[in-house]
Amino acid sequence: MKVATKVRSEEIGDIYKFEAFMGPITKCTTNPPCKYCRRSSRDRTIFDDPLTLEEIKTAIGLIAKTGIKRVEIGGGTLWEGAGRKVIESVRIIRKITPNIKIRVNVGPALTREDLLKLKELNVEEVSSNFETMNEQVFSNVKPGDSLKARVELAKNIDSIGLKLSTTMMVGIGSTYEDYVKHMFWFKKNIKNLSRFAITGLRPIPGTPLESKPMASPVEVAKIGAVARLIFRGVDVCFGGIMNDIRLLPLRVMAGENREIHLSVSVHRAWDYPTLSPSETSIYNMNRLRLVNNLPLITRIIKDLGLEPE
Predict the structure, then answer these.
(1) Residue 267 φ/ψ, nearest 5 degrees
(2) What is the CATH number of the domain that holds 56?
(3) pLDDT profile of the chain (309 residues), mean per 10
(4) What's the total number of domains in the chain?
(5) What gap in Å lies between CA 95 and CA 90, rounded to an integer?
(6) Bridge pairing between strands 20-22 and 70-74
(7) Bridge-partner residues for 147, per DSSP?
(8) What Rg do the C-alpha atoms of the chain give, in angstroms?
(9) Domain annotation covers residue 186
(10) What is the C-alpha separation between 266 and 269, in angstroms, rounded?
């Protein structure tokens, strides 16, 4: 991991990027749902109540006040009609925050025409997350999803000239050989790859994968360090089991230069455990909740010798 840190410093610099999250903005109609997702448990509500356009307007206003420069608008895969909601959401965000960098993450639900409209609205990145490129593992863990559709989306994003973000998941059955093949597929086939995330399985009670062991944070970090060596000029980040502020030093030592789901988020109100109450602000507005960990994350990042952005 020392080499990964060295490569990050030499190729990207000692800048660490913050990114806010807003969502979900779309329902998920994948059927059957992915086996690691909360939708496959008894609690199927996570994507059943997406933010309204008025709530998206409120959410981006709250995010703007934090001064953060990037935002992910995320949601489930709405297999029909997602483009209209996503495009209208981006228009609202652009009106309030003309210069914020937007990443759209709603699964393989966007047509080429949708992507062209998002490009016109100056969206910076669109995600196509594969989790795995092992077809057997994919069909087992994501039985209602389509690897073919996700590959097609990735190629459309790339050919249109948008930046592509993607995610690979550790702990769902892929081998080390699968991980390497996955990474080199992107290196060979995608010109505009801008963000490569490595997530680790966090088994959710009530899901088909509840009895599977959680991904080891050390293993996830080691695989992330390999990603940093392969994708030298690309943003590398971690998620899933790694979405824990206490694991931030491990993530950074593995070559991470961009966070997800740690700094600022606006979502439906649910109980949120705080590690440092004096450095975390929580604000409730009707059915929305803003969680702002920027003071805590900033302190840790500076302690690690990086400059927050």
Answers:
(1) -155, 180
(2) 3.20.20.70
(3) 94 97 96 94 78 97 97 95 97 98 97 98 98 98 98 98 98 98 98 98 95 98 98 97 96 97 90 85 92 97 97
(4) 1
(5) 9
(6) parallel
(7) none
(8) 18
(9) yes
(10) 9
